[in-house]
């Protein structure tokens, strides 16, 4: 039931705040995190020497955010592998490796096979999953359910937010167990996590500029997305969603990669979305992305910026600024991705497409 919405995707985007609140529920106690991970007890977590995140598509992009957060807080090497690339080679796995799978459906064949391979090699496995009782959690040592609620639209939206939250919770828990973070730092993140549902409601309340933008862009042929650090996976996700439901060619890049090739694509009129980190928390990254914006503007790009409220440094270079509330760097993707999800939704709608059932795609890819 679409509950009065024009599409399941529109409904699910609007459910982002509840998805995040439900994923956090019961897992924040006072100023700290409380996770129950069964077989992955403290002794096992202390002994780990490496983490590999396996997933596909949007779930894999959430894994890139997870990598930055877990490495920052728990000081353990984390790599992100597409599940199908992981299982069709011979990855190095030991009992001290934790393989974290991320899946909305819990049924994605590639991800399931990656988990089975990891277990057969003696690695530990944690499933971050949205669907209770699905296959992947059953085949893993432990599970952290995301509780985003059912996702019907083929394109994943609220589940991405919840996947990021699940990994942030795990990252904090792991860091606490391993003693790599102090209580004050945990308390600061926990405080900001509690604010996220309301901040998401603010982002959702400001959709009109995005709708207008989507309207004038409905015959655009190509859109680029740039980000750095945790903004990089946001750029990748923005591009995936656009190609998936609006059939517009879209690419996401890391800002630093621009001069290594992609800048050749910039010609007058090329639309580029830029995901901007907080100038308060990340002044260096911020100045780097501002120089990226200057480089592409100088070549005629039309620049649409996603930036935190109050960031005035981007104003001289942006054609349009989409604002998100202030938060901590690791939490920014949860807010920044929402305008990009709405943009894809509105553009596909402006083109008269079926946003819930894009051509050639299935919700759950249970075949190879
Ligand atoms: C994109 C999308 C897909 C899925 C991917 C993994 O909008 O929905 O890229 O994210 O197929 O699916 P799950 O999370 O069910 O394993």
TrEMBL record:
<dbReference type="GO" id="GO:0008483">
    <property type="term" value="F:transaminase activity"/>
</dbReference>
<feature type="active site" description="For Fru-6P isomerization activity">
    <location>
        <position position="363"/>
    </location>
</feature>
<keyword id="KW-0315">Glutamine amidotransferase</keyword>
<keyword id="KW-0032">Aminotransferase</keyword>
<keyword id="KW-0677">Repeat</keyword>
<protein>
    <recommendedName>
        <fullName>Glutamine--fructose-6-phosphate aminotransferase [isomerizing]</fullName>
        <ecNumber>2.6.1.16</ecNumber>
    </recommendedName>
</protein>
<comment type="function">
    <text>Catalyzes the first step in hexosamine metabolism, converting fructose-6P into glucosamine-6P using glutamine as a nitrogen source.</text>
</comment>
<feature type="domain" description="SIS">
    <location>
        <begin position="213"/>
        <end position="358"/>
    </location>
</feature>
<feature type="domain" description="SIS">
    <location>
        <begin position="40"/>
        <end position="185"/>
    </location>
</feature>
<keyword id="KW-0963">Cytoplasm</keyword>
<keyword id="KW-0808">Transferase</keyword>
<comment type="subunit">
    <text>Homodimer.</text>
</comment>
